[in-house]
Amino acid sequence: MSSNQPYLTFHDGRRIPQLGLGTWQVTGEHTAPAVRAAVQAGYRAIDTAYIYHNETEVGQGIAECGIPREDLFVTTKLWNNRHDRESAKAALQESLDRLQLDYVDLYLIHWPIPKENRYLEAWEALIQLHDEGRAKSIGVCNFQVEHLQKLLDKTGVLPVVNQIELHPYFQQTELQAYHADHEILTEAWSPLGQGQVLQDPVIQSIAHELQATPAQVILRWHIQMGRIVIPKSTHAERIQENFNLWNLYLDDAAMARIATLDRNDGRIGPDPDRFHLMEG
Ligand code: A2P
Asked: Ligand 1 centroid vs 231 CA: distance in angstroms?
């Protein structure tokens, strides 16, 4: 099974497929079939996390998908209650055991949890895990500028990627500008706004003009903006639809129309400055 698709290059020199399968809220018996359907459709990147409680099933899908490990790109994430150094290192090994893998391609701190203020310690643990080869690249999720700047000031090592909530209703232009200035790639979670942006009249009208689906228009917008995207679906036909973007092109006018959809109150998920869930 060959697969042609765009890759982006991290500042550490490694590459990531620009489009991957998100698995938040994909649980139980739906997980391995979703991973297999994605690989069959051409995806080579799978995104999971400890807190999704599906690493075992993601690992099962990976084992069954028939693609050599080195051709896949697997991401998982460190949960909020494991930011202390020893616990962070143990947590990755536990994730690897569940995934049945020797390494992940990308290991991310899931949330900064500024109230606990231990993300710097977690970052130092990830740097060590990277040096040991158990995480080929390291990054973060949901970090704000001040959190990223602290990593840079204290360790001199910047994440290769910051995975953040990003969709047409919540475009995070300031944070993305910081990323661009610091060679951090932007990865969009909930790229379809948890499905809520699919009904938007502007998106629907562009989709109609291009004879594409609303999901394809939104995902293509992300791709043309140079981001990594990880749409989630448990339906094989949608998983396939979401990968079928490479002959679609949004012109400047369509891109400009989507830019106008940004809203001050567009955030759907938690605010990283206030989110401090520790249970897992
Ligand atoms: P489902 O899993 O039932 O297919 P996001 O990745 O932004 O969080 O969006 C995920 C949501 O969008 C899920 O509810 C998913 O539903 C839905 N979804 C994903 N792809 C498509 C698609 N191509 N068409 C319609 N809904 C989709």
From this structure: 7
Q: Name the active-site residue from 50, 52, 119, 178.
A: 52
> Does any domain span residue 251?
no
* Tally of domains within the chain: 1
The C-alpha atoms of residue 42 and residue 7 are separated, in whole angstroms, by 13
Instruction: Give the tens place of pLDDT for each residue, 157-195.
Output: 999 999 999 999 999 999 999 999 999 999 999 999 999
Ligand 1 pocket, Cβ-based, cut-off 6 angstroms: 22, 190-195, 198, 213, 215, 231-235, 238, 241-242
Our mutation pick for probing the ligand 1 site, out of 164, 192, 237, 244, counting the most ligand atoms within 8 A of Cβ, is 192
- The span from the CA of 218 to the CA of 263, in Å, is 16
Judge whether 103 counts as a catalytic residue.
Answer: no
Ligand 1 centre from 239 Cα, in Å?
A: 9
Nearest to 185 by CA among 11, 5, 7: 11
pTM of the predicted protein model: 0.97
Q: Which two tokens stand for residue 37?
A: 């359907």
Domain with 102 in it: 14-195+223-235
What is the domain-level CATH number for residue 26?
3.20.20.100
Q: What is the pLDDT of residues 204-248, one digit of tens each?
A: 999 999 999 999 999 999 999 999 999 999 999 999 999 999 999
